[in-house]
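Final report, closing paragraph on structural work. Over the funding period we assembled a curated collection of sequence-structure pairs, and we close with a single example.
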Amino acid sequence: FQISLCIAKHGKPLSDGDTIKTAMLSECNSLFHDFPNRDKIIQHISEMPLSRNTVKDRVQRMASDVSQQLTTDLQKATCYSMCLDESTDINNHTKLAVILRYAVGDIMREELVKVASLSEGTQGIDIYNAVMEAFLSQDIRPEKVVSITSDGTPSMVGATSGFIQLFVQETKHEVIQFHCIIYQEALCARESSKKFENVPKDVTKIVNYMLAYALNFHQFTS
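Its predicted structure, as stored:
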């Protein structure tokens, strides 16, 4: 399972298991030449099942186990803080990342619950349906959500048909709303850059002037 986990973590083809075993066998004689049980070690390595189908089966079993552990931890948590991030991939498909932060004992965890496709649209009701489907797949109780972080778009925070309003109607209790600070920083940078747009131009002119002639450069450095 460790080799299968290594292959999956590095995003390598599942067929690389046989390549790894071949590489290990090619170095066995030099690595274990002074081991009294060298032949037994080589035999164990040669009998190690690392075919493509075996690696695939082990990766699927590990993924299923991780998913089950996540579901168990989510069910034990008393409350959640939810973060939603909507973006578009390179194929122009809209995706919604559903992230939950919760406590397991004394440890705080933040896990990606699901990346849902918003094929029907990006309105509040579409986001609501995607989130509720993600909660249903993990057997998560929506009423445990106490806060929601979003990018502040109308589809998220709209007073009548925004996602948060629809979610509050479903859970029948208010939630604390947070605005994503990264989005705020982007807006701040965009607005503030207008006030300093002449600074890069002046700096570029100065640098170009100094490097245009050797005399200018030597006078500046001296």
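The chain has three domains: 1-68, 79-179, 185-216. The chain has a mean pLDDT of 81. We thank the funder for supporting this effort.
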